[in-house]
Amino acid sequence: MNGFKALAIAAVAAVAFAAAAPAAQAQISIQIGPQPRCPYGYYDYAPYRCSPSGYYGPQYFNGGAFVGVGPWFHGPNDFHGTVNNRMDPHHGYRGRFPRNDERPGRRNNRFRGNEERDGRGNAQNHRR
């Protein structure tokens, strides 16, 4: 009977410890809000700041509307387009950035792309 009693006490203790253990919480919470409203599109990385005119090539626009990048990309799976990464703050750009909801001005017709990307920001190849 002592063996059964010891087993019963161990079982009760295990249940008590399991009940007292805190529930694991998720460490990452991703909340994607509405698509940014930028006149020339937005960078393909968080915090999705508005990009200046001339950053994206014509492939990123359909009828004048930006096709989106990152979590809001709504183009074909095999999409690739050209960007001018010299106009990216990660590559040293320090020029003016448009504000959200700013009206687009005259588009830069002298686009000089130097990098191919898919709609999710992955570089495909580099051109100079």
What would a concise description of this structure say?
With 128 residues, the chain is largely without helices or strands. The protein is 15% helix and 11% strand. It has a 3-stranded antiparallel beta sheet with strand order 3-4-5, with no helix packed on it. Strands 1-2 form a two-stranded antiparallel ribbon.
Low-confidence stretches: none
Number of helices: 1
Number of strands: 5
Main sheet, how many strands, which sense, barrel? Answer: 3 strands, antiparallel
Strand content: 5-15%
Query: Which structural category do the helix and sheet elements fall into?
Result: little secondary structure
N→C terminal distance: 83 Å
The outline comes out as elongated
Helix content: 10-25%
**Strand line-up of the largest beta sheet:** 3-4-5
Q: What's the overall average pLDDT, rounded?
A: 80
The Cα radius of gyration reads: 26 Å
- Write the H/E string, N to C: HEEEEE
**Quaternary structure type:** single chain
Can you put this structure into words, describing what you see?
The chain has a 3-stranded antiparallel β-sheet, with no helix packed on it. Strand 4 and strand 5 form a beta hairpin. The model has no long low-confidence stretch (mean pLDDT 80). It is elongated and about 90 Å long. The chain contains 1 helix and 5 strands, in the order H-E-E-E-E-E. It has a domain of 69 residues. It is mostly loops. The longest helix is centred in the N-terminal third of the chain and has 19 residues.
